[in-house]
Recover the amino acids of this structure.
C-alpha cells in the first residue's frame, strides 16, 4: 500500500513502521497520518496490529524500523512520558485507570504538569466534571470501585487532563452498554469540536464511520486501504473484506 | 519456670525500640523492591554509610541533629547516583542481575569503609543522655527517642505518599508503571527518587542506631538479613506489613534473649521466616490471595 | 555431538588435563597449592552452576552444603581412629546431603527471590548454630585435624604429599566435571534447562517439575559437599567462616564471572577471581575486594554472559 501522501498539515505521521515482539513480526511497515483536529478511524480484525500501532505512537513499544513524526518532528524512540508531555495522550484497551488512586488523584496524574497554573488546573478539572458528571460525584472514590463504563469515562477524562493535541483511543466502547456507547460518541464529537485530533481503534463500525472523517483498514500488520468515512456505509464490500462481517 | 514479668516488660520496650529502627530500614527495602523490583543487597551498607557520615558530621559540627539530616541527604544523593550508574542499565534484564549488582556494591562499600575508617569501631554520642526508671532499670531516654523519631520519619513519608504530587506519582508508578509513563510521569526518575528515599531511610536508621552500638564497616550485615526477613514476612512491597513484621519479630527476639544469648536469639527470626514461607508465603499480615 | 566436535572437545580436555597434572611438578609450591585451591572452589562453583545455570534457581545457600561437607569430614577424622579417607568422604557427603534434602524440599515450595533468600537464611542458621555450639564445633575457633592417608585402610596407605593431594583433587574434580556433563546432556538435563527457560510450560507439557528440582538440588548439594570434603582434606581445618553466606556470594560471583550454564566456566571464574585477588592484594592489601567488586559489577552490567559465555552452546553440545 503506498504511503499516505506526506502532508505538511499532518499532526501525526507514521512511516513504514516495523515492530517485533521478540521474534514475531507484528507490524510490517505501517504508514498512516492524522491531521490536526481530525478524527481518523483504524479498523480491522482482531490481531492485525491496531493496538500495537497506537502503542508505538505513544512510545510504549519500540519500532525496529520506520519513523513517527509529531508536529513535523521525528519522535521515534522518545520515551512515553516525554510524548505525553508534548501532546500525545493514550487511552488503552483495558482502560487501565489507577485502581488504588481516587478519581481525582487519577485526574491529577495528568493535571500535575509543569507550566500549568493553578487556575488552569481548576478549569480543566471543571471541564472534566462537566463532561462526565459521574466523576464529580465519585471524585474521592478509589478508581477500582467504579463500574466499567465509569472507568472508561475516567480514562478518557484523565487523558484530557494532559491537554493533548491527539488522543489515541483503543476500543473505547468495548463491553459498554448502548447508553454508554452513545455517551462516548458524544465525547468524541466534543473533543473534535475542541480541536483535539483522535486516532480511533474500534470494532464498532457504524460508530467509527459516523465519528471519523477518514478511516484506515489494516490487515496482517499493514495498512491496506484508506477511505473517506462519509463515502462508506456499513454494507460496503470494503468493510466486509477487512472486517469479515 | 517462673516468668520474669519485669524483665518481660523491659524486653517489650526494647523490642519495640529495635523494631521501629528495623521498620525504618525495612521500609526502605520494601519500597525499593515494590517499586523498582530490585532486591537491594547493599541496603545494609547504606545503613552503615549513614552511620559513618553521621560520625564525621558530628565530629565537625558537634550537632547530632545536623549529623542525622546531613547523613540522610548525602546518602540519599549517593543512592540516587548509584541507581543511575549501576541499576538503570539493568532495567528489563533478568532480576538476578540486580541482586548480583547490589551484592557487588555491598562488597565494595563494606571494604571501602574498612579502608577509609579502619577496623576500630567509632562512636556516636547520643544527643540526650539521661534515664528514667523503668521498673528496676535506669532506662535511657534516647532509646525512646529513637522509636519516636523512626515512627515520625515513617509517618512523614506516609503523608508524603498520600498527599503530595510526587506521592501520587510514586503510587501510580507502583500500580501501573506503563500507564504512569503514558500519563507523562517520568518513571525512570521516580525510580531513582524511590531508591534515594530508601537509601536515606537506611542512612537515618544508621545514625539513630549508632549510639547504641559501635559504628563499623560490618554493622550493616545483620541488619540487611533481618530487613529481608521482615520484608518477606510483612509481604513484599507492603509498607504497613513491613512495619508490623519488624515490631513482631523484634519483640519475639527480645523475649527470646531472656533465655538465650542474643546471637542465638536471631534464630527466632529465621524460624518465623520459614514458617511464613511455608504457610503464608505472601506475608503474615497480608490476607492470603485466593 | 558431531564427530568433529567430539574430537575437538576431547583433545582440548586432554591437553588441559595434562597441563594440570604436570603443574605441581613445575610450579613453585605456593602456586601449586594455589592451583589446587582453584580446583576445589571451582568444583563448588560448578555444583552451583547446576542450580543457577541449568535449572535457573539462584541459591545463596551453597556455603551450607560446602561448610557441612567440611565439618562432616572433620567429624570423621576426629571421631574415628585411625583417620580414614573414605569415611571422611562419606561423612562429608552425608552431612551435605542431609542439608540438601531440606533445601530441596523448600525449592519445591518457593520460587525465585524467595528461594534465594531462604537459602541465604539457611546458611546463616547453620552459621549461628556452628558458631555458638562451641562444645561440638569449636565455635569461632573451628576444628583442626590431620589428613588421613591415601589408599585402602588396612591394605596400603601412604601419606599425601602436596603433589599427590593435587592429583587426588584433580581426579575428583575432573571426574565430577565429566559426570556432571553427562548428567546435563542427558534427557534429565534437558528437562532442567527447560525448567529454567519456562517453568510453567514445562509443567504444562507434563513434567513433574518438583521432582526434577529436588534431584537438581540434591546433585548440586552433594557436589558442593564434595568440594567441602576436598577443602577439609587440603587445609585440615574447619571454621564457621565457610558457612557464612559470603562464601555463597563468592560462589555466585565465580559463576557469573566464568559464565553460567557452561559447567567449566565457573571453574574458570573461580580461577579468575582468585588470581585477581592474588594480584590486587599485592597493591591493595586487604582492600582488594574494592577493585574486584567493581570489576564484578562492571561484568554484570557489560558482560553478563561471563568469560566463557560465548562458548556456552559449544560446551553443551
Amino acid at each position: 500500500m503506498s504511503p499516505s501522501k506526506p502532508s505538511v498539515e499532518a499532526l501525526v505521521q507514521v512511516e513504514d513502521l516495523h515492530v517485533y515482539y521478540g521474534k514475531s513480526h507484528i507490524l510490517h511497515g505501517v504508514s498512516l497520518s492524522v491531521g490536526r483536529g481530525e478524527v481518523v478511524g483504524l479498523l480491522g480484525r482482531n490481531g492485525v496490529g491496531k493496538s500495537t500501532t497506537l502503542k508505538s505512537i505513544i512510545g510504549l513499544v519500540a519500532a525496529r524500523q520506520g519513523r513517527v513524526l509529531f508536529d513535523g518532528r521525528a519522535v521515534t524512540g522518545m520515551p512515553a512520558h516525554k510524548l505525553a508531555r508534548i501532546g500525545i495522550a493514550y487511552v488503552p484497551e483495558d482502560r487501565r485507570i489507577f485502581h488504588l488512586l481516587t478519581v481525582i488523584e487519577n485526574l491529577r496524574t495528568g493535571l500535575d504538569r509543569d507550566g500549568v497554573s493553578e487556575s488552569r488546573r481548576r478549569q480543566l478539572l471543571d471541564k472534566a466534571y462537566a463532561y462526565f458528571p459521574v466523576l464529580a460525584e465519585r471524585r474521592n472514590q478509589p478508581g477500582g470501585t467504579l463500574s466499567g463504563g465509569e472507568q472508561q469515562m475516567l480514562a478518557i477524562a484523565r487523558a484530557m487532563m494532559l491537554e493533548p493535541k491527539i488522543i489515541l483511543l483503543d476500543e473505547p466502547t468495548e463491553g459498554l452498554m448502548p447508553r454508554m456507547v452513545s455517551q462516548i460518541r458524544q465525547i468524541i464529537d466534543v473533543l473534535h469540536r475542541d480541536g483535539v485530533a483522535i486516532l480511533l481503534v474500534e470494532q464498532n463500525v457504524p460508530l467509527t464511520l459516523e465519528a471519523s472523517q477518514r478511516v484506515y483498514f489494516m490487515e496482517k500488520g499493514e495498512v491496506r486501504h484508506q477511505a473517506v468515512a462519509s463515502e462508506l456505509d456499513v454494507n460496503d464490500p470494503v468493510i466486509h473484506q477487512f472486517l469479515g462481517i | 519456670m517462673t516468668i520474669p514479668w519485669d524483665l518481660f516488660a523491659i524486653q517489650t520496650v526494647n523490642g519495640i525500640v529495635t523494631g521501629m529502627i528495623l521498620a525504618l530500614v525495612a521500609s526502605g527495602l520494601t519500597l525499593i523492591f515494590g517499586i523498582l523490583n530490585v532486591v537491594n543487597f547493599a541496603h545494609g551498607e547504606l545503613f552503615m554509610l549513614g552511620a559513618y557520615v553521621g560520625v564525621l558530621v558530628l565530629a565537625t559540627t558537634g550537632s547530632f541533629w545536623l549529623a542525622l539530616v546531613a547523613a540522610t541527604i548525602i546518602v540519599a544523593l549517593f543512592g540516587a547516583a548509584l541507581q543511575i550508574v549501576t541499576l538503570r542499565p539493568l532495567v528489563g534484564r533478568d532480576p538476578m542481575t540486580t541482586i548480583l549488582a547490589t551484592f557487588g556494591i555491598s562488597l565494595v562499600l563494606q571494604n571501602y569503609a574498612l579502608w577509609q575508617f579502619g577496623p576500630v569501631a567509632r562512636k556516636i554520642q547520643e544527643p540526650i543522655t539521661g534515664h528514667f526508671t523503668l521498673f528496676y532499670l535506669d532506662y535511657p531516654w534516647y532509646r525512646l527517642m529513637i522509636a519516636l523519631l523512626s515512627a515520625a520519619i515513617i509517618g512523614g513519608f506516609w503523608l508524603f505518599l498520600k498527599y503530595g504530587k510526587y506521592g501520587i506519582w510514586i503510587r501510580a508508578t507502583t500500580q501501573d508503571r506503563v500507564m504512569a509513563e503514558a500519563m507523562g510521569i517520568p518513571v525512570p526518575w521516580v525510580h531513582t527518587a524511590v531508591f534515594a528515599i530508601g537509601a536515606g531511610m537506611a542512612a537515618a536508621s544508621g545514625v539513630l542506631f549508632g549510639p547504641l552500638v559501635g559504628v563499623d564497616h560490618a554493622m550493616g550485615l545483620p541488619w540487611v538479613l533481618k530487613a529481608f526477613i521482615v520484608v518477606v514476612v510483612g509481604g513484599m512491597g507492603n509498607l504497613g506489613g513491613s512495619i508490623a513484621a519488624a515490631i513482631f519479630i523484634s519483640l519475639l527476639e527480645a523475649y527470646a534473649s531472656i533465655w538465650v544469648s542474643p546471637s542465638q536469639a536471631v534464630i527466632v527470626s529465621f524460624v518465623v521466616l520459614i514458617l511464613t514461607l511455608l504457610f503464608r508465603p505472601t506475608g503474615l499480615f497480608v490476607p492470603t490471595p485466593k | 555431538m558431531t564427530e568433529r566436535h567430539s574430537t575437538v572437545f576431547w583433545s582440548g580436555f586432554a591437553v588441559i588435563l595434562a597441563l594440570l597434572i604436570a603443574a605441581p611438578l613445575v610450579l613453585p609450591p605456593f602456586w601449586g597449592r594455589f592451583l589446587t585451591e582453584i580446583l576445589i572452589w571451582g568444583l563448588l562453583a560448578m555444583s552451583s552452576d547446576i542450580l543457577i545455570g541449568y535449572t535457573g534457581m539462584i541459591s545463596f545457600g551453597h556455603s551450607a552444603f560446602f561448610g557441612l561437607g567440611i565439618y562432616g569430614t572433620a567429624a570423621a577424622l576426629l571421631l574415628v581412629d585411625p583417620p580414614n579417607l573414605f569415611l571422611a568422604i562419606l561423612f562429608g557427603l552425608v552431612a551435605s546431603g542431609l542439608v540438601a534434602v531440606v533445601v530441596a524440599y523448600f525449592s519445591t515450595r518457593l520460587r525465585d527471590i524467595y528461594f534465594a533468600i531462604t537459602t541465604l537464611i539457611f546458611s546463616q542458621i547453620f552459621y549461628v548454630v556452628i558458631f555458638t555450639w562451641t562444645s561440638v564445633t569449636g565455635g569461632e575457633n573451628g576444628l583442626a585435624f590431620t589428613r588421613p592417608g591415601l589408599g585402602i585402610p588396612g591394605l596400603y596407605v601412604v601419606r599425601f604429599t602436596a603433589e599427590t593431594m593435587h592429583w587426588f583433587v584433580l581426579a575428583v574434580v575432573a571426574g565430577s566435571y565429566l559426570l556432571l556433563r553427562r548428567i546435563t546432556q542427558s534427557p534429565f538435563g534437558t528437562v532442567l534447562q527447560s525448567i529454567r527457560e519456562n517453568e510453567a510450560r514445562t509443567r504444562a507439557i507434563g513434567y513433574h517439575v518438583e521432582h526434577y528440582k529436588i534431584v537438581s538440588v540434591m546433585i548440586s548439594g552433594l557436589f558442593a559437599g564434595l568440594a567441602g570434603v576436598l577443602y577439609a582434606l587440603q587445609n585440615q581445618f574447619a571454621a564457621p567462616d565457610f558457612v557464612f553466606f559470603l562464601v555463597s556470594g563468592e560462589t555466585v560471583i565465580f559463576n557469573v564471572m566464568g559464565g553460567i550454564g557452561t559447567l567449566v566456566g565457573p571453574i574458570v571464574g573461580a580461577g579468575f577471581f582468585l588470581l585477581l585477588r592474588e594480584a590486587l592484594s599485592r597493591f591493595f592489601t586487604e582492600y582488594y575486594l574494592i577493585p574486584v567488586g567493581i570489576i564484578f559489577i562492571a561484568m554484570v552490567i557489560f558482560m553478563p554472559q561471563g568469560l566463557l559465555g560465548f562458548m556456552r552452546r559449544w560446551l553443551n553440545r
